[in-house]
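Task: encode each sequence below as C-alpha cells.

Item 1
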Amino acid sequence: MSAGFDLQALAHQIRGARGLAHKRDIDAVVARLGLSSRPSAVPVGDDCAAIPDGDGHLLLAIEGFLDGFVAADPYFAGYCGIMVNLSDVAAMGGRPLAVVDAIWSRDAAAADPILAGLSDAAALYGVPVVGGHTNTRAAAGNLAVAVLGRAGPRLLTSFDAAPGDDLVAAIDLRGRFREPHPYWDASTGSPGERLRGELALLPGLAEAGLARAAKDISMAGVVGTALMLLECSGVGGLIDLDAIPRPDGVPLARWLTAFPSFGYLVSVRPDRTPAVLARFAERGIAAAAVGRLDASRVARVRGRADAGEAVVWDFAAGPLIGCGRTDAGDAS
C-alpha cells in the first residue's frame, strides 16, 4: 500500500461499491418474506439453503444475472450460471449434483452463446444440466440458474465464525480481468480436472474439521463478502488489506471490488490455519490469513502498520443484509 493511500477513503469506497449495494437489497426481502423467523437447518443468509437429508444435507442455490451483463457477455453469463452456483455449494462444504436453468432471449440466435457457456461450464465442472425453462421470444435476455448439491453432516456456514478465529482468504490468481468488467476469470480455458479439484478443497476442509465457516467471494468483493460473513456470525474483526492475495500489477482499490472465479473466505481456528493454507497451496491457490475475528461486531480494515484503522461497518449501528446472530459464538 502506497504511503499516500487514504484508508478512510478506501473504507468509504467499499461501503459504496455497487456489488455491496446489491447485497443491501437482501435486508428488505428477508423482512418482507419473514424468512428470519422460519426454522431451517441453516438460517437464511447463507450461500445455499441446507435441507437435512439422511446423514447429511441437500443444498439448494440459485443465481440470477443482471440483464446488462447477459447482453454484454452472453457466453460468460452462461458460464457463470454454472460456475458461481457451484462455488456457493462448495462454500458450504458440499458437492454439486445437478443444475437447472431459466433463460429468456429475443430469439434462438441470441440464446445460443448463453447456452454455449452453460454447456461448456457443465462439461468442465462435470455437473449435468437436467432441465429448466426456455423462452426465446422475450423482449430482453435474462438468465437464472439453480443448483442442487449435497454435503455431509459438517456444513461450512456463514453463521459459525467465532472470536479468535483467523480469517483466511484463498483466491486463484492465475487469471485475468474480462475488461472492462470487475470479473477476474481464472476458470475459462482451464483444465476441467484442475477446476474440479479446486472446488473439492472446500468440502475437504469441512469433512476434515479444519474450518468452521466459509463464504465465497461474491460481487461484493473480498471485504464486502467478509462483512456478510461477520454479520451472519455476530462478530467483528480487523482485516489487513496488505495481506489479501492479489495479482501483480492490479491496484488494491480495483482488487477489493473484483469478483474472482475462485475465491473464498474461511474462518479457521489459529492452530488449524497452517493445515488449511497448505491444502490451498497444494492446488496452486494463493491463500493467507488476512485478519482476526473478535466479539466487537465492528468490521475494520488496516493497511500499513502506521496508518491506523478504518471502520467499514458497525453492525450494532445498523444491518447490512439483515441476517445473522446478535450473540458472538465461542471459540471452541
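Item 2
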Amino acid sequence: MKILILSDIHNDVENLMKFLDELKNVKFDVLICPGDLTDTLTPKGFTKEEIGKLIIEEFKVFKKKILVVPGNQDKELIKFFENEGMSLHGKGKIIGNYGFYGFGGARTPFQTSLEPGEKEIENGLKKAFNEVKKVRKKIQVTHIPPARTKIDKIFTGAHVGSEVVRKFIEEKQPLLAISAHVHEARGIDEIGKTKVINSGRFPEGYYGFVEINEEIEKIEIINLI
C-alpha cells in the first residue's frame, strides 16, 4: 500500500494545481487529505462548498481512491465528503487489507467552523475504529495532531495537539497516524510502534509519502520546490 498525503490547502487552488502537475509520476494507491481544503474567507464569488468541490475534482484526476477528514475550516463540506463516499469523519473504510478510520476538526483560538471538544473526538474515533476493528492493519487520520509530539508544536514551542488523539494511538497502536493543522510542525514522530506524520501545507510544495507492507517500509516528507 502506497499512500500520498496532501494537506492544508486553504483555498490555494493556484498552487494546488501547479504542484499536482508535478505529482503525475508518483505511484500511489490512496490519496489522503487530513483537512482544511478551505479557509475562513473564500475568493469573491465562491462558496466554501464550491472551493471544496473544485479541489476534490482536481484530486480525482489521479483516478485513485480518495479519503478525507474535514479540517477546522471545512464544516460545510462534511455532507459533500459523505456523499462522495470519501469521508473518514467518524467513519471507517476498508481498502484491501487496510482499515482507515478518523475524525476531523480541531480547536483553535479563532472560533472556526469545526472545533469539536475532546469527548466528541473520542466518541468519533471510537465509532470509526469499530467499523474497521476486524482488520489487522489500521491507519488513523485526524486533522488535529496528537499532543506532545514533534508534529503539534507551534512556533512559540507550545504543544497544541489533542490528548485524546494521542491516547487513542497509544491504546490502539495503528501502523500509521496522519494529521495536519499545525503548519509549522511538519515532521515525523513515533508513539509506541505507531509512526505519526504531519506532511505540512501542500501549497507550499510539501507532501507526504508512505509505503506499507507488513510494516512501514518508507515514510517521508518531500518538498517539490
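Check on item 2: The chain has one domain: 2-223. The helical segments are 13-21, 48-59, 78-83, 118-130, 163-172.
End of task.
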